[in-house]
Structures
1.
Amino acid sequence: MKTLTAAALAAVIALGAGQAAAAEGAALPKYDWSFSGVFGHFDRAELQRGLQVYREVCSACHGLKYVAFRNLEALGYSEDEIKQMSTEYSVVDGPNDEGEMFERPGRPSDYFPSPFPNDKAAAAANNGAAPPDLSLMAKARPGGPDYTRSLLLGYEDPPAGFEALEGLNYNIYFPGNQIAMAPPLFDEAVEYADGTEATAEQMATDVASFLMWTAEPYLEERHSMGVKVVLFLLVFTGLLYAAKRKVWSDLH
Amino acid sequence: MSGFKTNNAVIRWIEYRLPIFSFLDDAVGSGYPTPRNLNYWWNFGSLAGLALVIMMLTGIMLAMQYTPHVIFAFDSVERIMRDVNSGWLLRYIHMNGGSFFFIVVYIHIFRGLYYGSYKAPRELLWILGVVILLLMMATAFMGYVLPWGQMSFWGATVITNLFSAIPLIGESIVTWLWGGFAVDNPTLNRFYALHYLLPFVIVGAVVLHIWALHRFGSSNPLGIEANGPQDKIPFHPYYTAKDAFGVGVFLVLFAAIVFFAPNLFGEPDNYIPANPLSTPAHIVPEWYFLPYYAILRAIPDKLLGVVAMFGSILILFVLPWIDRSPVRSAKFRPIYKQFFWIFLADCIVLGYIGAKPPEGVFLIVGRLATAYYFLHFFIIFVLSYVERPRPLPSSIGEAVLKGGGAPPAAMAREKAQ
């Protein structure tokens, strides 16, 4: 620990030496998200498709621990649908009266169970690199949803002469270009409930949008409240300016 | 001496026993005569006060939901964002309120630099302001640690480690600050306690700051003392109205960020839970610390870097004695005015460099900008002897009213009462 902190200090203070610039990924293409902009809002169908991609593909390795099944009401599901969906998961509960932990079907109040019991288990099962929880991913990476979407589509053959390390995959958008995650999306990897054609690009877009919702579930409330607040304040400030002019009129 | 009068029997009854109404009237009411020529740069003191109140109100409400423990801190913040009623709003206001507090305070400080507000007899007023800045920096730094994200943890590690540069006792001081041998739960606990305490200390310093302000009243853009009724107007209604308009503009901008770009000032890394085993590629402080961070990294020696960083603020304490020119306002100091703008540009360059890795051209520019930061104070020391100021107007009234004009109506009304 001490060496670590000292190393960190050295890295930020040392002049020129030491800190090699971490290779940044390629510039992210900008996608026109429905939720960007002042009036931006989520596309419910897109979120539902994204949830499906998460459940059928991502959830094999990635958790979503800050999202409860009850939260899915915001995606347009009914209470019964959510109950049904949560019972498809089994969660560990307890201890019971005998002092034993036990498994039971999920309830709407439960959170998405993580695929691994802890980070060590996750790392051990994944070649040493624990797959991160996805709840906050859209806010935890520069570029947010653009990054998520690009990364999922960024797998390419490495350029000539590029030697990827054992077990790592070449991805043009990942910092350092070598990512432990194998390419997760292939055309038709899921069969969308709403009949949308499941191209890799479609799935990447849908799941990136879904992860923006998991990271920022109150985005729509924020936007609609913001529009009202700012409009009110603009009018109010105009009145304050008029009042100021009136008060000062006898001085000028 | 207060001219406070009322026809309300209840207020009169209270006022006789506890003269709080005349006190308020003298502080921010019609009993506080203020130079008539204050421009909009004089709005930022009241805005800083507003920012402090916003921070304390949202902070107290957040404290009711937050858990200062390394295992629960990050989750409790996420709970505030997801499950607490309007928790996301409270947190985004508090998060961005810190940035806006620094924005208005920095503008307030540069206003003071431009118009020479720090000069006699307002040296203590200025010094108390620098004390408030230091308290704000400590409070903001400790507040940034509380969500216990990656930048929280590594920022805390880097900054507390600075004290290890002190010869002989440095290591012991760092251990003492941490409450252990690494940034850990005891560190988080004490930072939380201090983050809650320091704002009240700031309030105390603000009271002294305003007390000192009222001794001689506000300075003004001309930098000459106001004398006589034609130079002054009552604070209320003139400056209450002007400040209220400023508050409106401030709130529009603040709301725009809170509602439409709440993570603009933040680092994405702080949405990753703290991990002592994984260092982020770039450890960067919040934007308002970047100029100091640039100064720290510009100097090859650790101890000297730390000294220069703290020195860059401490030098402000003695500014009233460095700048010896009797003329306050840059309006009448043509050369000082140019150096003021160069200094402001230098601080912005330092802020930009602070966000960049210390290598190549950034390092060179950072060193030059750091050298210039300190050189500036030497320049204005020399300047105060060699510069020839332009002639000052004989009174505010003369300059503003072009030699005439009636006293303000509100004052006339008051006299008539």
2.
Amino acid sequence: MRASRSERGLHNVPAGITSFVGRRQELAEIKRLFSGSRLLTLTGMGGVGKTRLGLRVAIDIQRAFRDGVWLAELAALDDPALVTHAMFDALDLRDQSARWLVATLAEYLAPKHALIVLDNVEHLLDACAVLADTLLRSCPELRILVTSRRPLGISGEVSFTVPPLPSPEAVRLFAERAVSVVPGFAVTAENEATVGQLCKQLEGIPLAIELAAARLNVLSLEQLLVRLQDRFALLTTGSRTALPRQQTLWRTIEWSYGLLSLDDQMLWQRLTVFSGSFDLEAIEHVCAGELLAPEAVLDQVGRLVDQSILVRDGSRNPVRYSMLESIRQFGRGKLHESGGADFRRRHRDYYRQLVTAMQPFGASQVQWFDRLSLEHSNLRTALDYCLNEPGQAGAGMELASALWLYWETRGRLSEGRRWIEQFLRSGLGPSPARARALWTAGYLAVVQGDVPAAQALLQESRDLSAALGEGRSAAFSIHFLGRVLLFQGNLAGAAALTEQAIGLHRQAGDETGLGFALVQLAIIRCFQRRAVDAIRLLDESADISNRHGERWNLSYVLWVLGFATWLAGRADDAAELELRALRLKRDIDDRVGIPLCIEAMAWIAGSVEKQDHAAALLGCARSALQAIPSPLPNPFRTYHDACEAQARARLGDTAFSAASGKGESMSLQEAVSFALEEKVIRPARETQPRGSSPLSRREAETASLVAQGLSNKAVAAKLMISERTVDSHVLNILNKLGIQSRTEIASWVTRHQDSVPASALSRIR
Amino acid sequence: MGDTTPGFSTGLSTLPDSLARRSAHNGRSVSLFIVDRIIPGLTVQQLSIAQHAMVESARRLGGNGARIRYIRSTLIPAQSRCLCLFEADHRNLVRTVNETAQFPFSRIDEALELTTPLTVTAT
């Protein structure tokens, strides 16, 4: 399973950001401002260090947020409709339903004490502002930190303009960057004045300083200063309305560009067609050729990294590269001047080839899903090109449809459907590709539970497929119409259609469809209490999966096999099958399948009178569903409700609530470990007060500070929460302890030191 | 508003061809638009969140000569369907406001609203 939130230490801020120069005053001021406001926007020109500063603040104060700190990077987004999707990605949530995403996000965040960092929002300012306003209204303990060239302009916002670096810090930054290109470089009495002049020329703009320092591998300090001075004097002043510092950065980028060879300049331009991060193979395929020799690309990439044009991320294998926005914008402008539309097509072609070359129903399927996740930003760019470039809608429709399993397995149902439906509306006539797009959109709608839309799309696909003689699309549309009937509770109808689909899949020689359809029919047979038939179908589906080396379908085979085996009265065998299914689902990161397995385990445990364990597993399943977030699918509610009712009756309400509460308090990773009967390792951060205490951890921290004589305002500043929240905590403390005054709180704290978390005591001291 | 709009008080034969209701507003007219959406599971509480989002979005995108105002919504729970009424200079502005609010929709149509019955004169 990919790193869960608890494994990531309740944040997703990149590790490299910890290297940082200066900014002590700014950090202190930002933290002070943030203690009194729930929305803080760091503004300033491009290249001044807003992102780096924002992420540093986030890391520094992360311990104040019980539910973590989450970074949503928006630089690569063009479409306001995708802002919420970016937040889903940041929080590692899955879009698994047709519900309104903003509402799902607000409901998920409502009970959370978390910090969201929205980075680089200026090009999506209105959408981000409206979303931030919505979330702050709905989520009382949420805070948001934004980096943008302009403030959001919403109520409650505090903005802080990030200044350029003052001279001593600018010099330090220059020196740190210089050492990476000239080992042993140091600022000395001899060169201090020159370095100072350089930094002054660059007006303390961090990005400009880094670009200049990178040139020390070929120029001396004095040469660097003279060339910059000459360059700035020669260039025109540009826009009269532009701030002088913006011109300085632009001039520095332009100067840096001018110092490159023609080949390196060309590569810089061509790299701007990428979105987010990209690897060397992609660079070679998209950018090489036409005056750029493929064998030279590796060295060129190295030079651009050395010159700080490209940022290298060595934490991944293969290494990935990215560009800062200011540098990308400059390069994009140059590409446009030189007529570089062809490279956007090449970018699209490369990613189309990537998608179609891989086998989603094979041994490398999970690597395929993970690779596509990494390339998601570029997939969006490729699809966007197809949508907006005349004559490319057909290619876009095929690309979006080919990704159908990716959209599902990586929890991007709404986005996948949106792309496919946009292409379906683009005016393309009847065709095999259209028939396929219709059933893939219909499939995504079924998985979302949007039955009316699914039915319409699948029926249209079925009819078109019949008219065109498209056997494969006909099979899939009938297959998923069967699923629609299953969701509607029409088991006989669902079985008939699924059997028909199985016949068509066999006829078309399509083992992907056949494997899935056999599992679907097996589920229907289970609900029809025909467990023996179900097991036979699953055996065939397992054979297909094993022959292809694929694991996604196999994990569902095991899950349903466990269910069928349980229905056949073999609880021990069933439990073992569900354990195997869950291990596999953890390996392939099937967030939807994991709670289904845990639910089945609960039903099995309850049926053999292990009620305490059943109750805990029901809680674990709820936790796993909340991690998506998603409710339990309707067909399984009957079994869930029966299991819960039995456990409650046997244990009593109190014991049941205690056991299920224990499960529900676990993270997704902990819940899976518990269900697999592995040792559950909780993160180092305390989750409960020591000893027994009626107060929550936050209330105990508040009580401790009150006991030290701090006002509510001072407590708020200390704990990085609002004064209103402290008021609420104090009220809760008084009510829970049955006392009337702050003096009594102090007495209680003195008597119950053991009930105050050690982390609270250490933080406060 | 209907009283001052040409054609309304004199019978069906003099209704304007366009279905848009035009309301005079400092000499300039705006149109009504219905935004139609199917959102499975949409609750009143969620609609309330959406209303704030649409109001804020309209506030931000109106101005600079562009006029748009969110008026109200009607939720049909049995159909998971929500109809939102806007008053705006043009359809594209309504589209942009809803896209900025990230509240998905299926269609936007010009609308005609009748609050009192017309008097129909036989001809």
3.
Amino acid sequence: MLENESEWLIKAQKGDSQAFSYLVETYQRPVYNLCYRMLGNAQDAEDAAQETFLRAYKSMRRYDNRRSFSTWLLSIAAHYCIDQIRRRRYPVVSVEELTVPDLPDVSPGLESKLSRKEEQRRVRAILNVLDPVDRAAVVMYYWYDFSYQEICESLSLTTSAVKSRLHRARRAMAQEWLDRQPQPAPGVEQRGTKGRSESLMVERMTP
Amino acid sequence: MNHRIYEDWLFTSQDDPQALTPEQDNALHEHIQDCESCRSLAIAWEQVENELLNEAMLAPEPGFSLRWQARLQADRLQKHQRQTTALLIFSSLGVTALLGVMLALAWPWLRTPGVFLWVGLYRLFTLFAYADAAEGFMATLLQTATGVIPFVAWVILAGVLSELAVLWGVSYRLLTNPRRITR
């Protein structure tokens, strides 16, 4: 598979559009996912992913074979999405108004599907509060397991800048999560997830 | 109380659990046990991190690569159209500039055509006079040459020139004719 990929890369660098189509087939999912997490809706994510592959195809001659192709491709996608967000100044849309694309669901049942959609809404809501570059760093860190070095290369930042941005993003997301929590009625003891998390947290923090 | 430092420690320890000294770690732990807002923040972050880690990677609608190929074709077509338009605009500008220069040069003639007509006629007659002089010079040269060079040498010269002409014709035909590819 990897040998095939390096062959496709070499052919694509020589301008073979068929070889590049194989690369599109292989990397469509990570690129689309990054665009979706950055832009927040399926239509814009599709456009951005298509544009990313088009830009990559046009820049293939400049691609350095020693570098990971996925890192290079995701870097193009992230920069494009950051530009789009800054240029269009995306309007703040209520998370409830947005449609959520269907995921390939392995567990049957309407309840499970609804729960996953709700989770996606929550994730999108907390990502939406972040600055575009911070958002890209968070997506690369949590969805793609990128190291700091890879994030640095992809976003053209220094290691300390990446750490600082992730730090700031985590704080902002936690604060947003807190703000979105429904306030408990006075006198009612909180139960459920929060109660469990609290006991887990205290347990984890105990030396 | 200053919560900021504990919040910083809380999020710093997410990247590297060894980043805090044991004293800082203890202080953070004690603070989280006592402080409701920092505890809520820590719990909130834990839940956010769980959500992020559990969130699946989304896939595009089926047929993505086919749509990409169509987009590539459309992009190529658009590029071709842009190049054609640019070429047309460039050519039009060139023609316009050339016409402008010609008009600027001809402007005095257009304003006073009589004078330029006379000057033109004068130059034409001068040219005829030069041509007549050149013809006389050539005739003299030829007469001198026919007297000096014998008749046989003329015949040989004519023969060589004819052969060279035939050779040029054959070469031209061979070089310009399309090649036949045979198996």
